[in-house]
Design a protein that fits this description.
CATH topology: Rossmann fold
Largest sheet: 7 strands, mixed
Helix content: 25-40%
CATH architecture: 3-Layer(aba) Sandwich
Family: Belongs to the 5-formyltetrahydrofolate cyclo-ligase family.
Order of helices and strands: HEEHHEHEEEEEEEHEEE
Distance between the termini: 43 Å
Organism: Jannaschia helgolandensis
Pfam family, one: 5-FTHF_cyc-lig
InterPro entries: FTHF_cligase (IPR002698), FTHF_cligase-like_sf (IPR024185), NagB/RpiA_transferase-like (IPR037171)
Bound molecules: ligand FFO, adenosine-5'-triphosphate
Strand content: 15-25%
Protein name: 5-formyltetrahydrofolate cyclo-ligase
Radius of gyration: 18 Å
Shape: globular
Number of domains: 1
């Protein structure tokens, strides 16, 4: 017997809630298993990229972001410090900083909490944060106008598959004011669907290394 559906001695439905969203437990389990397998497949594809593939991808993605952003001057832009074979945009970040953008990095502050965004500048002191991800040592929190998110997978409706912590989804729903979410990744990241769940937040536009620039319909 399945405890989730058939235990009528349990009047509490809290186990069906994910961050306030009602979710069927069996669906949640199936989707989590699907995403886990897809993550492994996509991490594997990233590992096949050569140094020159990566360099070319970074140039192409940087160009695509410039096309999408227009003038970064005066904008507060959250980018990221690359992990797990993500495109390395640090050169683009330094250039945008030089052109007058404020650049911030995501900082995990707690397991199920939204991430914070802390100002970064080229060469600033860094330290290892949660998950061992480098973060700026000096804590200067900001609210970004633009969030550049690394995508592991992306589906036709621009829902993102990430590393599986749910951090960006939790963060983006809570960001005050208008913000633009730009997903960046490799051409092989495309999927038909990630089976979006109520908490998934679609991106506004994606920039892939194969030259794809796709805006959400
Ligand atoms: N470069 C970069 N920085 C980032 C993010 C990112 O995706 N890329 N994040 C964007 O969110 C946050 C970190 N997100 C992370 C999410 C999960 C795991 C992780 O290790 N997950 C487990 C599996 C979790 C699960 O399936 O329950 C693992 O892979 O072992 C690490 C970092 C903040 N900083
Ligand atoms: N508000 C929320 N937003 C996102 N995920 C949440 C939320 N609350 C709880 N979760 C849980 O966190 C996990 C997030 O999984 P999901 O596949 O969405 O991660 P992801 O978007 O790939 O990760 P990340 O953004 O860290 O790269 C799920 O198991 C989900 O149940």
């Amino acid at each position: 017997m399945d405890q989730d559906e058939d235990d009528d001695s349990a009047p509490c439905f809290a186990h069906l809630l994910v961050d306030g969203h009602v979710v069927d437990p069996r669906t949640r389990r199936d989707v989590a298993a699907f995403r886990k397998a897809e993550r492994q497949r996509l991490y594997g594809l990233r590992k096949t990229l050569s140094v020159s593939d990566r360099a070319a991808a970074e140039t192409s993605i940087a160009q695509g972001i410039d096309d999408v952003l227009d003038d970064p001057t005066g904008q507060t832009i959250a980018a990221y410090w690359p992990i797990r074979g993500e495109p390395d945009l640090r050169r683009w970040m330094a250039q945008a900083h030089e052109h007058g953008a404020r650049i911030a990095l995501p900082v995990v502050v707690g397991r199920d909490a939204p991430v914070g965004f802390h100002l970064w500048s080229p060469g600033c002191a860094m330290e290892r944060g949660i998950w061992n991800i480098p973060v700026p040592r000096n804590v200067m929190p900001v609210v970004p106008d633009v969030v550049i998110v690394p995508l592991l997978g992306v589906d036709d409706a621009l829902f993102r598959l990430g590393n599986g912590g749910g951090y960006y989804d939790r963060t983006l729903v809570r960001l005050p004011g208008p913000r633009r979410v730009i997903g960046v990744g490799y051409g092989f990241s495309r999927m038909t669907t990630i089976y979006p769940m109520p908490w998934d937040v679609p991106m506004d536009v994606i920039v892939l290394d194969d030259g794809t620039i796709q805006h959400r319909q």
